[in-house]
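Try this one yourself first.
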């Protein structure tokens, strides 16, 4: 007699492939790190074709081929910049890069001409949209159930909006980004106490899901600098007391070419042992960690095997290319099972959710399918329920687990 579990086993390769794709595409994901804001944040909410085309990933690429100086480019209006990026990367050249292919995916989803000679059709389409309905539509297409914003408590524009007691869309969670604190604080004892009180207050009012900090490749722990004091005397005690996870994004070299503005940052290989020491010294703090250098990815997996308070997440920024996402996700499956968060979008413009998740889901589905196929070859078939369990854990379970203790 065939038991019910046996009847569900996916022992044919084509069935397995179809089920993995279906489940990966239909499971909602929590996007654990974005730079998005809901429409209530007015001009901070970026959407539409001109914002999409002036994304810093694309301006950096366009300025390699367009014959304009940085000064000329930045003195142009946003629409003129977008026109130039379109002409340079999509008309005069073939859009092979990941960021350019992202634009193609977005245009295609909305039935817009991906070979258009100019942006008139796309502009007419986006300006006909009501942003509130459009946002719902984008979340549906991308199948994103929630996003985490990046909130700078020292940003005046943001602060004014928060203080005007706007109601924030429930799908948007806040996070407390501490880069400007770490880069500017002078560390008199009185300042440390004031900063602590400021953070306590911000956390109480805005209910962030985590605190976050980006770090350069030479980040060390312990260190002999102001950042070390801030970590030990302010940030880590705050994380502990509020039971708030700490997100560390390591390996960014800011402003390598300041003329490129937002697009001017680069990366460097960092020292993963600094994260190991943090995890060892603060076992009560949960860390979400991503590294920007491809060379750090394997070491991060090994560190996560040693410390259960360390959750690797995402393929950040210059790693968010199909070939590298594929490699990293596979490496993580092999070393960590399902105990990691495969991707975050880092979206700055609403519609980027569509392409970033479409492209990421494809790589995650391929890697998962290969893992299950290997299991099948070795004598163990899988059921659709088990695939759903795994994908739910990757897409939301691990993150919820990390931030639930509050
Ligand atoms: O520090 C960050 O959160 C980075 O993601 C950004 O600063 C960066 O500009 C970006 O958007 C990368 O995707
Ligand atoms: Zn980011």
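Now uncover the answer:
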């Amino acid at each position: 007699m065939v038991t019910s579990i046996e009847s569900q086993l996916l022992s044919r390769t084509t069935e397995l492939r179809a089920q993995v794709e279906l489940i990966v595409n239909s499971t909602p994901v929590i996007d654990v790190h974005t730079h998005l804001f809901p429409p209530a944040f007015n001009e901070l909410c970026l959407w539409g074709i001109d914002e999409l085309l002036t994304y810093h990933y694309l301006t950096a690429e366009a300025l390699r081929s367009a014959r304009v100086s940085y000064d000329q480019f930045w003195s142009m209006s946003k629409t003129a910049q977008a026109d130039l990026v379109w002409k340079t990367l999509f008309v005069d050249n073939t859009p092979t890069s990941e960021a350019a292919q992202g634009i193609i995916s977005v245009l295609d989803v909305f039935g817009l001409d991906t070979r258009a000679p100019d942006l008139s059709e796309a502009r007419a389409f986006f300006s006909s949209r009501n942003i509130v309905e459009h946002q719902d539509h984008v979340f549906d297409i991308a199948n994103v159930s929630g996003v985490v914003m990046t909130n700078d408590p020292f940003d005046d524009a943001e602060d004014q909006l928060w203080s005007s007691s706007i109601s924030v869309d429930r799908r948007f969670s806040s996070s407390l980004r501490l880069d400007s604190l770490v880069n500017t604080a002078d560390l008199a004892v009185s300042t440390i106490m004031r900063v602590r009180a400021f953070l306590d207050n911000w956390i109480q009012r805005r209910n962030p899901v985590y605190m976050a900090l980006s770090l350069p490749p030479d980040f060390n722990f312990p260190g002999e600098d102001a950042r070390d004091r801030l970590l030990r005397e302010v940030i880590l005690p705050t994380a502990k007391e509020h039971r708030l996870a700490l997100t560390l994004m390591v390996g960014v070299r800011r402003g390598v070419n300041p003329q490129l503005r937002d697009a001017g940052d680069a990366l460097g290989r960092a020292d993963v042992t600094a994260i190991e020491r943090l995890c060892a010294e603060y076992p009560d703090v949960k860390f979400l960690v991503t590294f920007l250098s491809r060379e750090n990815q394997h070491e991060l997996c090994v560190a996560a095997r040693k410390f259960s308070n360390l959750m690797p997440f995402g393929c950040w920024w210059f790693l968010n290319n199909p070939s590298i996402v594929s490699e990293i996700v596979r490496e993580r499956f092999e070393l960590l099972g399902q105990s990691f968060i495969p991707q975050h979008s880092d979206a700055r413009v609403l519609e980027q959710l569509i392409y970033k998740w479409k492209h990421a889901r494809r790589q995650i589905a391929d890697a998962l399918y290969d893992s299950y196929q290997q299991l099948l070859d070795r004598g163990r078939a899988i059921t659709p329920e088990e695939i759903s369990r795994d994908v739910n854990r990757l897409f939301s379970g691990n993150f919820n687990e990390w931030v639930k203790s509050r």
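Discussion: The first strand starts at residue 29 and ends at 31. The longest helix spans residues 352-377.
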